[in-house]
Write a structure and sequence with these properties.
Blueprint lengths: L21 H7 L12 E5 L2 E4 H10 L7 H24 L6 H24 L7 H10 L8 E11 L5 H9 L3 H10 L5 E8 L5 H9 L5 E6 L2 E12 L4 H31 L28 H10 L5
Antiparallel strand pairs: 1-2, 3-4, 3-6, 5-6
Length: 315
Amino acid sequence: MNQINKAGFSLTAARRPVLVLALVAAGLAGCGGKESKPGQALASVNGEEVTVLQLNEELQRANVPQAQQAAAGKQLLESLIDRQLVLNQALQDKVERDPKVVQAIERAKALIIAQAYMQKKIGAPAKPAKAEVEQYFSQHPEFFSNRKQFELRQLVLASKELDPQLKAAIDGAKTLDEAAAWMDQHQVKYVRAQLSRNSAELAPELSAKLLSLPKGALFIIREGERSVLVTIAEVRDAPVTLEQATPQIEQFLFNKKNKEVADAELKRLRAAAKIVYLNGNAPAEQPKADKDGAKAPAADASKDDTQARGVAGLK
């Protein structure tokens, strides 16, 4: 989730090229006509300096349109001053000695170093070729050329309410409104909702089920402590052209290549390391091949499917 500073700009957006460097910082540093240099102070907060380097780091992380960068720089400087004020007080209160804070700092440090190493190993993979994009498009018509849009109506209720009497009432109902009327009569609490999803956003088995059911059919989806009574209001074609899909497919293939490089490096590191599991923390034994040599499906196989559906426009 993006965090928004008081200037209204996202401060956790993806890194982007530095568009405003010392030139903007020079305008913030005050008068005198001196050229800003890396590390030059822009402000002093109880003796602790806020520098050009710090401001430039924030500018790199902020997703600010170029026309707004001067104003953003001033706002970010104020945010840096606020941060330094809080930091000074925290250090005065010795917050950094709290065991939970120490642990969080060590974790953040480890993540930053590990991510920097992996980014160095991944480098900058080449943009996917046009042929790769076209191949992926043609291999997944369910995401693109044959995409369907489902308009769904729902009654959301607690799973504990689904007793045999309610199930029988749902089985006998011809419409969602009939089921809702029965729940009203028997004081079963529910919330109405409507949902619009395309076949690329749904698990393949659910998409196939929706396509197999007639319009108006009722079915129940259990989601832990809640259940959803669903009816299909409409199904329509929603195809996506190759031109429309290309940017998403390129990003998906780019991410896929990054993941493959990262997975290969982790595999290499594991093979070269001596890993000893202590206190009974060894991982579960991997599924063995059956008599025909086939293995059970991997537990995370659905992740690849989810990532693939993501290329089709999941938010």
